[in-house]
């Protein structure tokens, strides 16, 4: 106990985080709550962890009668505040200003608040009073808006009603994550796209907010369909850009991106390719071809992380490989087929074949790359592709493969176990972490959530460990962790094993796969 008392807060939190990693979140929080009741000292240790991330789920009909958001004695521990208004009892035609006023009061007591996150607002996007409250919080460095889009013309913001001086906004991270919308029926070809009402409202509001944070923001995430007009803004400190949705960017747009964000080190294009889906059209700027190419080469040479979920139409970017500083490269599809969140979506990405990926890898060799992710559809070049990975990336330490078998009805069709473990086991390989989605057609199916499938699930997970993971671990002697993608009725997760020096597999807590559409 004396050692704990003398330890700094950071050390204690590191110990608790280590314990958290070894058990489920539910059990961890229950144990922490019990521990906090043991003594005053342990209570002081546990409370910062229990309330570090505070999530308030509000039914609007009840929140107006609830005057307490969080007791003031606990506000000091909150660093992440999540507001979930998915259970609205009333239609929010008017701004809930009374809620915003109470948020201003409680934010003033949260001395360590760093992140505000609005989730699942079913009726309206962030309203002016709420934005004024969160943007003017002195300690706030991140604002995230998840699945809470502006939908109606009356939600359009302007500078007069949004009283946020630019000098008071010091956001380092701004996220507006609404990659696919529900303006059209699922059976419609336009499902998942912005319509002519919602799109302009979203774009106008994003342009206004971006103008306030562009000088300070370092991490920016926006819907792909709304990305084009935003690239004209200058982002002197932007390090990471993520766009999600339908493919908006053409080749000539990249010159503007790299010119306006000179410190950009990570680009993540999680998009679905469409022929044309632009909210606004514009023509390429007048520029000579060599000048344009110089912008591409100079900008891409600074990248440390690159995600291209759709490689079609990216020939200009791919031709600039290799990049001197690149550490992470991902060709993983978005949304990922079969993973929870995409299973019930009608948005289907085009999965490249192993031959198409092989054509790209045959032209590159990136010795700096440590992480590579890809998804592909099996064809005759499957073995050649797997053999080429270590030649293209000789210092690879983490590899994630989503291998999809078209029309396969049994695990034996295009069986990966016949050659895959030994093909990936190259002499001198430094591969330490391997993550595999082998698209098992015979995995347990959950057609009825009321049906007890626990026995079938246990048998399948034993099969994954003994018959699948063991083969890879014995073939690839450098492996330290092994993960295989598994599913249940409502979630997808990585079955995880730690590999000992004697090549034994020690099960670890499952790692959930988070796919937000």
Main sheet strand line-up:
1-2-3-4-5-6-7-8-9-10-11-12-13-14-15-16
Radius of gyration: 25 Å
How many helices?
A: 17
The computed structural class is alpha/beta
Ends apart, CA distance between termini: 46 Å
The multimeric state of the shown protein is: single chain
Count of beta strands: 16
> Can you give the helix content as a percent range?
25-40%
Shape: globular
Mean pLDDT: 80
Unreliable stretches = 276-292
Strand content: 15-25%
What's the story with the biggest beta sheet? 16 strands, mixed
List the SSEs and their pairings.
Blueprint: H1 2-6, H2 9-21, H3 25-36, H4 40-50, E1 53-57, H5 60-63, H6 72-75, E2 80-84, H7 97-107, E3 115-119, H8 128-135, E4 142-146, E5 173-177, H9 198-213, E6 219-223, H10 227-230, E7 240-246, H11 253-260, E8 266-272, H12 289-300, E9 305-308, H13 315-318, E10 328-331, H14 354-361, E11 371-377, H15 382-392, E12 398-404, H16 420-424, E13 433-437, H17 454-475, E14 481-487, E15 492-499, E16 505-512
Parallel strand pairs: 1-2, 2-3, 3-4, 4-5, 5-6, 6-7, 7-8, 8-9, 9-10, 10-11, 11-12, 12-13, 13-14
Antiparallel strand pairs: 14-15, 15-16
Helix pairs in contact: 3-4, 7-8, 11-12, 14-15
């Amino acid at each position: 106990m004396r050692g704990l008392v003398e330890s700094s807060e950071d050390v204690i939190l590191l110990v608790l985080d280590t314990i958290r990693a070894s058990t489920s979140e539910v059990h961890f929080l229950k144990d922490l709550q019990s521990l906090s009741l043991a003594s005053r000292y342990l209570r002081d240790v546990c409370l910062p962890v229990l309330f570090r991330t505070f999530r308030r789920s509000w039914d609007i009909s009840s929140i107006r009668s609830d005057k307490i958001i969080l007791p003031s004695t606990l506000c000091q521990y909150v660093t992440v505040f999540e507001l979930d208004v998915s259970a609205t009892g009333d239609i929010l035609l008017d701004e809930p200003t009374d809620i915003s006023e109470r948020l201003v009061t409680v934010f003033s007591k949260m001395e360590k608040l760093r992140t505000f996150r609005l989730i699942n607002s079913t009726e309206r996007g962030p309203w002016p009073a709420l934005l004024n409250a969160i943007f003017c919080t002195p300690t706030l460095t991140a604002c995230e808006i998840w699945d809470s889009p502006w939908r109606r013309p009356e939600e359009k913001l302007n500078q007069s009603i949004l009283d946020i001086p630019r000098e008071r906004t010091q956001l380092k991270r701004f996220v507006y994550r609404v990659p696919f919308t529900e303006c059209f029926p699922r059976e419609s070809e336009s499902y998942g796209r912005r319509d002519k009402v919602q799109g302009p409202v979203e774009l106008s509001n994003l342009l206004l907010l971006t103008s306030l944070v562009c000088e300070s923001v370092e991490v920016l995430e926006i819907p792909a369909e709304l990305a084009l007009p935003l690239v004209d803004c200058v982002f002197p400190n932007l390090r990471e850009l993520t766009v999600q949705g339908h493919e908006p960017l053409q080749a000539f747009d990249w010159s503007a991106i790299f010119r306006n964000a000179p410190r950009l080190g990570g680009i993540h294009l999680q998009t679905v390719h469409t022929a044309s889906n632009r909210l606004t059209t514009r023509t390429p700027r007048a520029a000579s071809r060599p000048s344009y190419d110089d912008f591409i080469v100079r900008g891409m040479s600074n990248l440390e992380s690159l995600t291209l979920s759709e490689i079609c139409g990216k020939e200009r970017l791919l031709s600039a490989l290799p990049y001197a500083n690149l550490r992470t490269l991902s060709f993983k599809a978005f949304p990922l087929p079969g993973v929870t969140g995409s299973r019930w979506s009608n948005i289907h990405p085009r999965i490249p074949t192993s031959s198409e990926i092989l054509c790209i890898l045959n032209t590159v060799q990136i010795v700096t790359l440590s992480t590579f992710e890809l998804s592909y559809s099996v064809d005759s070049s499957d073995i050649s592709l797997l053999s080429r990975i270590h030649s293209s990336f000789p210092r690879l330490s983490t590899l994630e493969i989503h291998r999809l078998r078209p029309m396969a009805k049994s695990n034996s069709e295009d069986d990966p176990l016949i050659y895959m473990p030994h093909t990936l086991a190259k002499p001198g390989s430094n591969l330490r972490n391997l993550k595999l989605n082998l698209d098992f057609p015979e995995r347990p199916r959950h057609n009825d959530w009321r049906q007890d499938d626990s026995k079938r699930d246990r048998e399948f997970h034993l099969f994954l460990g003994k018959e699948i993971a063991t083969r890879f671990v014995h073939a690839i002697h450098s492996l330290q962790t092994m993960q295989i993608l598994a599913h249940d009725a409502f979630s997808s997760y990585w079955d995880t094993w730690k590999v000992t020096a004697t090549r034994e597999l020690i099960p670890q807590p499952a790692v959930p796969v988070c796919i937000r559409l």
